[in-house]
Amino acid sequence: MTARVRAARTGYRCADCGQQTAQWVGRCPSCQAWGTLEQVATPVGGPHKVAAGAPSSPARRIADVELDTARARPTGVAELDRVLGGGLVPGAVVLLAGEPGVGKSTLLLEVAAKAAAAGTVLYVTGEESSGQVRLRAERTRAVHDALYLASESDLSAIVAHIDAVAPQLLVIDSVQTMSTDTADGAPGGVTQVRAVTVALTALAKERGLPVVLVGHVTKDGSIAGPRVLEHLVDVVLSFEGDKHSTLRMVRGVKNRFGPADEVGCFEMADSGIVEVPDPSGLFTSEHTEPVPGTCITVTMEGRRPLLAELQSLVAPSALQQPRRTMHGVDSGRLAMVLAVLERRCRIRLYNRDVYVSSVGGAKIADPSADLAAAMSIASAAVGNSVPQRLVAIGEVGLAGELRRVPGIDRRLTEAARLGFTEAVIPAPSRNPHDQLMTVHAGMLVHAVATVQLALGAVGLMPPERHLRDIGLNEEDQEWTA
């Protein structure tokens, strides 16, 4: 019986995403990048048996596995520990990705300085010199005797530094600048990034050494490099922030040791990056008197309730197609809210310009902000103000109904803690005429079933009973100031 000989055939692989194709094409079918396919040799052969080898350790019952070596250790930065699920687990590999200049290196230098108080930390930089990192550490007061710096881009040299320093935490800034002789390609390419990450992950698991990798992002905000990079690491964190705002958020995208939907808040200051344990005040403004067109809601960033203020302006338009301008809110959801107000609440908007914006640069994607957007637009349209100490929470449906959102008790508790005294939320039942008043944590809560009842509860449109008494057509009558 003749053995099957494994041959090799020519294929093509994308240098950006790693997608393989049988023939060359100008544009990658996966990531849509132009001119990135490179010729590679791929082995071809039939299935073969794998011989049994010696296991590295015998299999044990899951109840007999020790937990002491897998418990998280705090980093000293409470907001980061919140996202990580308590801290860094020995042997864990964390990938922190973000746009250039958002503050990734500043944050990790702060983490390294705090962690150095409990053990030796090795900070490896491939983008800056040791002197440049020291200069930033002086500015942010992140200098510690147990914090070691190394300016290296070769993986074998990094392993030598690890053997010499024996750190308890390793920071690599960044993984796209590292290279190894065991793989082909230039630093930052798909092959090099994959090989470096695989080697560092194996090293972390073997020595129980937590490793933090800094990753670059592409123009569309996704992590640069092969998609397998996110599968290899244990934790993926996204560092987000607007260049025009000092607020920064670390969002957990993947976490094998804790919740994957947690958010940590920071603020960029002259002295470095500062934790913001209570960021609700950053997204609201203080008014001495009620102002038409403003309404406050409580959104959920992960499991953290945050207050956000929406401001609206409605003005007559001289254009055939009135302007619809928004900042910080989803344009599709806002268009739906405008249609519901026009059709279900009879508020005339088809010949008016509508401007909607969030306060403080907040980006609101939570559907629970629909009701606050509807109230702020209605308030600006009719010229009446929403009560100052009121929050509106609820998702708006196309039929004008209010849908319940998760975490309503936690949202109301947070609003009550910050001094709000009144709230409008969806009713627990589906009866369109239900309207219930309750008290939660000292707040007066209006539980209503529709947008019309919600606007009527705060005086933004006349009650339906009053419309019937004065003989107006509920379907066609327009309500204006």
Describe the structure.
The chain is α/β, with parallel strands linked by helices and 481 residues long. It has 3 domains: 35 residues; 206 residues, P-loop containing nucleotide triphosphate hydrolases (Rossmann fold, 3-Layer(aba) Sandwich); 188 residues, Ribosomal Protein S5, domain 2, CATH 3.30.230.10. It is built from 11 helices and 22 strands. The chain has a 9-stranded mixed β-sheet with strand order 6-5-7-8-4-9-10-11-12, sandwiched between helices. The chain has a 4-stranded mixed β-sheet with strand order 13-14-16-15. The N terminus is likely disordered.
Shape: elongated
Oligomer: single chain
- Fraction of residues in helix: 10-25%
Q: What is the CATH homologous superfamily assignment of the largest domain?
A: P-loop containing nucleotide triphosphate hydrolases
Percent of residues in beta strands? 25-35%
Would you identify the regions where 5 or more consecutive residues have pLDDT less than 50? 1-6, 465-477
CATH architecture label of the largest domain: 3-Layer(aba) Sandwich
CATH C-level class of the largest domain = Alpha Beta
Classify the secondary structure makeup into a structural class.
Answer: alpha/beta
The figure for the number of domains is: 3
Kindly state the number of beta strands.
22
Number of helices: 11
The separation of the N and C termini measures: 92 Å
Biggest sheet features = 9 strands, mixed
Radius of gyration, whole Å: 28 Å
Mean pLDDT: 86
Strand order of the largest sheet: 6-5-7-8-4-9-10-11-12
CATH topology of the largest domain: the name is Rossmann fold
